[in-house]
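Structure tokens please, single chain.
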Amino acid sequence: LIEKMTLKVALFLAFACAAVLADDCACNIQDYGAKPDNTTLATTAIQATIAACATKCPHGATIVVPSGHFLTGSVLLQSNMTLSLETGALLTGVSSQAAYPIVPFEPPMGDTMCYRALIACYNCSNFAIIGNGTIDGNGYQWWANYTKGVLKYQRPKLVEIVHSNNIRLQGFTAQNSAFWTIHPIFSRDIYVSDMTILAPRLIGNTDGIDLDSCVNVTMVDSLVDVGDDGICIKAGSDRTRTRIATDGILVERCRIWSRNFAIGSDVSGWVRNVVVRNSIISTPEGSVPWAIKIKGHQTDGGGVENISFVNLTVGPIGPTPQQPHSSVFLDMYMNYGASSSACSPTSGTPHNHVCMDGAWRHRPAVLAGIAPVFRNILFENITVASANDAGTITGLVNSNVTGMVFRNVVIKEYEKPWSCHYVNETQASSISPKWDCN
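Here you go.
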């Protein structure tokens, strides 16, 4: 699987490099009226650059953002196109809601609408964002308005790529998104490298990258420091009945500084064949509240299978100002959203019931018998400096977590050992604290 992914990435890089090197197909946004003064709105000029360059070079256009500070609203890119952010280029989102068209939220959730992403591409092939510049979502006003409850629609993401293929994101800094930062969805053949993804740690929902119902993704040599999930993998939502699998993900040589690697909670379309290796979950100062989360909704179906975490270094795990009650290395559960002790797994799940509103309630007929499946998950060669809790792993009475393997997993300092409910068929060797959950 990994070798096939590498070959596809190499072929796409050849295309992208050829597009960048064709100087007659490189269109500078300043030539179409964009002003680098951080005052004049450049949206119209940038969109004009995109239209003209796509017409002139339909098989490989490059939109050049030169050094300077450009203010823009939402921009819509096209196929066979590279957005090149030169050194010193800063593309900043304007805070005016009117600069962001209203579009359906992705993944579609009924009538839910949102402000379109600052950089968006729908149904694109052979698309890239590269360079040493910065895309800044200027999220401060959005965060304030969200907190006040005055936004009519969901906040815009920073970069959203929908129903697309052959995508490269390389080298640039993505920061201060109003909502999720990078969001490829229903897309395939994606290569992410040398990225820096930043947001204040105090601001929730600023996920670093959400890979959502995507196939064949490689993410390497990148740094993520945000206020929510650093790298998150999703697939489908029971709320929409849109169930497309995420399959074939490689994350390697990445650093997650502020939070965690997560799978879920939306896994109704299945998340399969994920490898996370040779990476660091830590922060240069203080601690992270948790390292790995795998979560699902107990009525959504789908599941998680064939997942590997290998050669990871995890720093101190402990409470933070943002998460004062969290300190766990591994948090795995299928009852996301259950919040009452009345729904504790130790009390057992009543037949054909589900935890809703803090109590066991009769499962709706349309959802009867649907439970997620978590199986075949490997943890190997992982060192954790310290954690209050080693891990909490919670299956369901009608869907146990099965086939986990722990090899050489060492938490050097801890207060609480592993806590497990509805877990079986686990193999554990060279593990500390001792595994006694079978």
